[in-house]
Design a protein that fits this description.
With about 130 residues, the protein is an all-beta fold. It is about 0% helix and about 50% strand.
Length: about 130
């Protein structure tokens, strides 16, 4: 089974940017649709963004549109989440998840669709 490792989190000032990475142990990662989720302290896990295995489709939570960008580099077996204009409300643990779905344009916003999860990377935004 594929293992996912997130990285790129850290402490950043409001207004800054981060790029989170989700590296997969199995090649090719292009066999998998991938999603990013986050969980803020005291809140439920929420969907952030998703990308299809085909790399042709992406989806974003409505509140994330414009500041978040999901992209994949299949050569590096990695999916990225670029976050711009960070605010303290973005403070959360960010998780990537994968669902094996080769050659598909489908994207998945429901966390129950995913079979594999990483351990998460913490993003903390100071005001």
């Amino acid at each position: 089974q594929v293992q996912l490792v997130e990285s790129g989190g850290g402490l950043v000032q409001a207004g800054g940017s981060l790029r989170l990475s989700c590296a997969a142990s199995e090649r090719p990662f292009s066999n998998y649709a991938v999603g990013w989720f986050r969980r803020a302290p005291g809140k439920d896990r929420e969907f952030v963004a998703a990308i299809s295995s085909s790399d042709r489709n992406t989806a974003y939570a409505e509140s994330m549109k414009g500041r978040f960008t999901i992209a994949r580099d299949n050569g590096k077996n990695t999916v990225y989440l670029q976050i711009n204009s960070l605010s303290p409300e973005d403070t959360a643990a960010y998780y990537c998840a994968a669902k094996r779905r080769s050659y598909s344009d489908n994207v998945y916003q429901d966390s129950r669709s995913y079979n594999y999860w990483g351990q998460g990377t913490q993003v903390t935004v100071s005001s």
